[in-house]
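Deliverable D4.2, example record:
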Amino acid sequence: MPSITSLVRGLRDLPFTSAPFILTAIAGAGVYAFLQIADEVSEAEFDAYDRALLLAFRRPDDLATPLGPPWFREFMAELTALGGYPLLTIIVALVVGYLLIARMYGPALFALLAIVSGTAVSQLLKVLYDRPRPDLVEQLVSVQTASFPSGHAAMSAVVYLTLASLIVRLVDSTPIRVYVLAVALLLTVSIGISRVYLGVHWPSDVAAGWAFGVAWASLSWLVVAVLRRWRGREQG
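Output generated by the structure prediction step:
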């Protein structure tokens, strides 16, 4: 029977030994931030900030119209799709397909487990908190689910950062690793901002989604680091 450490077979170790401690700290900070935001939201402590930030993206004389020219609104609508489930599913399928073709079955399974479980928990949190969507401004894209936490913000962090964690362990080049992580972070932040711009999320929804997504992705990275160490001991 294959060892559980086969999930990380073919992945490289990171060049610094303090990675597990850093990842633990980031995951802990993410969980703490999410719980704090959720507590403040439940007590309506963020209402004034949410309203002010949401309105900051709209024309003062016409709250139905966001700032910027029409082409920018279309750009934001297209950008937000990068955090939607259809496109994320395609991206994950393409990456997992590559890993399977490369016969990296363990990492392919690990990526699926990390992302699918993160998706399930994100949806469970939406049901648990059941926060209504903003009604202060017109929503520029169609939405059906609850507002807290932002699924686009959470899942863009889970998917892009988890996949980035695999890619940086498949290459030796530091510039490539930095580039991949920077792109993953840029996509995560941009998608979250687009949700507020389009009027479908309160800023606190997005902040909580980021906190959850970063925490989940960091835990996934931590699992990889731990399994890599166990695998080293098995081979030793």
